[in-house]
Write a structure and sequence with these properties.
There is one protein chain. This protein is 36% helix and 12% strand. By secondary structure, the protein is of the alpha/beta class. A hairpin with a 6-residue loop joins strand 7 and strand 8. The radius of gyration is 21 Å and the shape is globular. The protein has ten helices and nine strands.
Length: 343
């Protein structure tokens, strides 16, 4: 993430726009734990103790599966586009804003929500109009997770800079990468020096793992498998949504978060003293399931009294039969949990 921020800044310097340095991101976004990445993040909870070191960068709202009262999701997405343009204007417009950074699917309380295609098309147009780079954080969504190599392909929009990780090596080795468009790479291709580096940069074993993983994804047709089995997974979501404690499902491909709640109408979660997360996790483990979100326990950030996001985030080589088995276990877990909680 910080490599991308530095590249965006130096690109503008090399192009003669030395005053462009501000990065705009979304409220509730998460882009990493180092100081520059925390400056870009939109969640105040992770920043509080480090505020003297943070950059005071602007944040805008992201599209939501539950827009404000009286607005459709499409109308709220258009509002978010307007807010982005307004934020660029008040942050100095074409003179001072270097980049807008966002994830292809929403973060925070709406984790996994995919905004309408028109939202991203408008983002691209706004960034072009103000000479602002668009940085797509594809760490979670890249390398097949959503049924395409990269999630932005679903929207037909090309970012200027793309951050990747996780799926690039399937985590058999620690590996991340920053990908540049030809436009952004041009001054560097002509000889501009990018002063940058990490102790383990370009590690040959990690890079060999990444290359092998990409080869396997291509040779075994795992992008196509993710699209096909992901479509099947989403078609079976009603098995979970019939439960009184599952409010909605979101996502694309083999990324399908659902929201665990006490009350579907208010979207509220169980009170802290009920130990709902611990009980849910224990029942899940008994049934052979591990739920990522519940590992936070009482330290979990509270998003406006919303429920607990549960990430269905399977290997992209999973089969439909294995999806059925997983959903059977999930169904059983929810039934036992609801009985335990008296729902």
């Amino acid at each position: 993430m910080e490599t991308a921020i530095k590249l965006a800044r130096q690109y503008h310097v090399e192009m003669g726009n030395v005053q462009k340095y501000k990065i705009i991101t979304c409220h509730e976004s998460y882009h990493g734990m180092t100081l520059g990445a925390l400056s870009a993040a939109g969640g105040p909870g992770s920043q509080t103790k480090y505020i003297p070191f943070m950059q005071p960068w602007p944040h805008v709202h992201q599209p939501s599966s539950r827009p404000p009262s009286g607005m459709s999701t499409e109308e709220y997405a258009r509002f978010c586009n307007y807010e982005l343009e307004e934020a660029i204007h008040y942050a100095g417009g074409e003179r001072h804003v270097a980049a807008f950074m966002a994830t292809p699917v929403s973060a925070g309380e709406d984790y996994g929500f995919a905004a309408p295609k028109e939202y991203w098309e408008s983002v691209r147009e706004i960034c072009d109009r103000y000479n602002v780079l668009f940085i797509a954080d594809e760490v979670v969504t890249g390398f097949g997770r959503t049924g395409k190599w990269f999630c932005m392909e679903h929207f037909g929009v090309k970012p200027d800079i793309m951050i990747t990780g996780k799926g690039i090596s399937s985590l058999y080795a620690p590996l991340g990468a920053v990908v540049l468009s030809d436009k952004v790479n041009e001054p560097f291709a002509k000889g501009a020096a990018f002063v940058h580096g990490f102790t383990n940069q370009g590690h040959p074993v990690a890079c060999a793992v990444g290359k092998t993983v990409i080869d396997i994804i291509e040779e075994d047709g795992l992008i196509e498998n993710c699209a096909e089995v992901g479509s099947y997974l989403h078609s079976q979501a009603d098995r979970l949504l019939k439960h009184p404690t599952i409010a909605e499902k979101r996502g694309k491909g083999l990324l399908m978060p659902v929201e665990l709640v006490m009350n579907k109408e208010t979207m509220e979660f169980f009170p802290m003293g009920a130990e709902a997360e611990r009980k849910f996790q224990m029942i899940g483990l008994k049934n052979g399931l591990v739920f990522y979100a519940t590992l936070y326990g009482p330290r979990r950030p509270v998003y406006h009294q919303r429920g607990l996001p549960l990430f269905i985030y399977t290997p992209i080589c999973i089969t439909s039969e294995q999806v059925d088995d997983m959903l059977d276990r999930f169904d059983t877990t929810l039934t036992e949990f609801e009985k335990e909680m008296g729902v």
